[in-house]
Amino acid sequence: MSPLEVLSGEKMIERWENTINKELDEYFAGKKRGKESVMSKRAIIYSLEWLSVGYFSALYMAGKKYAKHALAERIKGKLPDAHIFLVKFFSDMGFGKLVVVGAQNKRYVYRLEHCSTCWEMPPVGKPVCFFEAGLIAGILEAKLGKRVTVNETLCGGLGDNCDEFIARIDE
Ligand SMILES: [Zn+2]
Q1: Hey, which of 55, 79, 139, 164 would disulfide with 48, CB 3.0 to 4.6 Å?
Q2: Strand partners, 167
Q3: Coil vs helix vs strand at 55
Q4: CATH code at 83?
Q5: How much distance in Å is there from the Cα of 113 to the middle of ligand 1?
Q6: In the 3-class helix/strand/coil scheme, how is 109-124 assigned residue by residue?
């Protein structure tokens, strides 16, 4: 495997633009029926690129707020139920196949396959699934009543074939 290429912001936008254009070509050729929600999500994230500074943390905060204020109170029970909900929610929304890998030393590990943000994207040298990380963080904070930080350690943006998120519970 070749060493990971770290792209400049400009180069990253260019690659992402190529992906978006390819998807739009397929869409206008009538080939991608049923994938429009994935495409629109990617379009929003791609468009945010142009706003540049701080957009990663804006996406993370957006995911977290949405999870805490719109989703969390609709989920009955505590953490096991919240995890069951998260897996189903990711699947129903077309975000990807979420797997709760396990818990260890106040950390939770998640894997996300076929992630709608980064699946089959050209590597850009950094993780890009900050909205998804924020969603997990928001649900955990709401259900545990503690501060939680979620980091994405594997990502399509880094050239990995699935995402991995590590949630750290801050006491
Ligand atoms: Zn992803």
Answers
A1: 55
A2: 108, 150
A3: helix
A4: 3.30.1380.20
A5: 8
A6: EEEEECCCCCCCCCCC
Does 56 reside within a domain?
Answer: yes
Q: Which residue has the tokens 């690659």?
A: 15
Residue type, 87: V
| Domain presence at residue 129 | yes
Contact indicator for 113, 39 with CB cutoff of 8 Å: no
Indicate the burial class of 79 (C-beta count within 10 angstroms; 0-12, 13-18, 19 or more): middle
Q: Looking at the domain assignment, is residue 75 inside a domain?
A: yes
Q: How many whole angstroms from 123 Cα to the centroid of ligand 1?
A: 11
6-23 pLDDT, tens digit per residue, is 777 778 778 777 877 787
| Cα–ligand 1 centroid distance for 81 (angstroms) | 23
> What predicted TM-score, i.e. pTM, was given to this entire model?
0.81
The answer to whether 137 and 150 have CB atoms below 8 angstroms apart is yes
